[in-house]
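Give me the fold.
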Amino acid sequence: MYLGVTPSVSCSNTTENEFFLMLDKNPLVDFVEELPAGRCSLCYCNLLCGVIRGALEMVHLAAEVTFVQDRLKGDDVTEIGITFLKKLEDKKHKRKK
């Protein structure tokens, strides 16, 4: 919603803690014409993985977020895989008097 893109969600049938977000249009791709020679392993859109992971940590969920497919590397869609690892403990800070 923040980027103006609505992803399609695909769930994995084998595990209950994994799903995939597919973006038909990735707004970050507009800023990159093509990957530099010798730098094919760069993933400019990894920023999205960090944003999703950070947002999940804010609600106390640990997750592994990775790119499965990337339009910059010739794939038809941008696909992000999300695997939930565990629920994080809510640490309460004691106030000093």
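Helices lie at 46-58.
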